[in-house]
């Protein structure tokens, strides 16, 4: 599931909580950035 972070208050909101409203439920800020899930990059060591 995707998560979004509010740039104003810094809270992370799951996309299910946002529904179709692209704004922060905490402070009504509309600037949200998508938070990438913790994915470990595979680096091939040589
Ligand atoms: Zn906020």
From TrEMBL:
Q: Which reaction does it catalyse?
A: RNA(n) + a ribonucleoside 5'-triphosphate = RNA(n+1) + diphosphate
Q: Does the keyword Lipid metabolism apply?
A: no
The answer, when asked if Zinc is one of the entry's keywords, is: yes
Q: Which SUPFAM superfamilies match?
A: RNA polymerase subunits
Q: Write the Enzyme Commission number(s) for this entry.
A: 2.7.7.6
Annotated TRIP4/RQT4 C2HC5-type zinc finger domain ranges read 5-34
Top EC class of this enzyme:
transferase
GO cellular component terms given for this protein:
cytoplasm; DNA-directed RNA polymerase complex; RQC-trigger complex
- Which residue positions does the secretion signal occupy? none
- Subcellular location(s) per record: Cytoplasm
Question: Per the annotation, how and in what number is the cofactor bound?
Answer: Binds 1 zinc ion.
Which keywords has UniProt assigned to this entry?
A: Cytoplasm, DNA-directed RNA polymerase, Metal-binding, Nucleotidyltransferase, Transcription, Transferase, Zinc
What biological-process GO terms show up in the record?
Answer: DNA-templated transcription; rescue of stalled ribosome
Molecular functions per Gene Ontology: DNA binding; DNA-directed RNA polymerase activity; zinc ion binding
User: Binding positions for Zn(2+)?
Assistant: 9, 24, 27
**Which InterPro entries does the UniProt record give?**
RNAP_P/RPABC4, RPABC4/Spt4, Rpo12, TRIP4/RQT4_C2HC5_Znf
Q: Which domain of life is it from?
A: Archaea
Cofactor names from the entry are:
Zn(2+)
| HAMAP family cross-referenced by the UniProt entry | RNApol_arch_Rpo12 (MF_00615)
Subunit info? Part of the RNA polymerase complex.
Q: What does this protein do?
A: DNA-dependent RNA polymerase (RNAP) catalyzes the transcription of DNA into RNA using the four ribonucleoside triphosphates as substrates.
Question: Could you say which protein family the record assigns here?
Answer: Belongs to the archaeal Rpo12/eukaryotic RPC10 RNA polymerase subunit family.
Write the protein's name. DNA-directed RNA polymerase subunit Rpo12
Species whose genome carries this gene: Methanofervidicoccus abyssi
């Amino acid at each position: 599931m995707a998560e979004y972070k509010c740039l104003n208050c810094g809270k992370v909101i799951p996309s299910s909580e946002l529904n179709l409203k692209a704004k922060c439920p905490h402070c009504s800020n509309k600037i949200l950035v998508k938070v990438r899930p913790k994915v470990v990059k595979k680096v091939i060591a040589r």
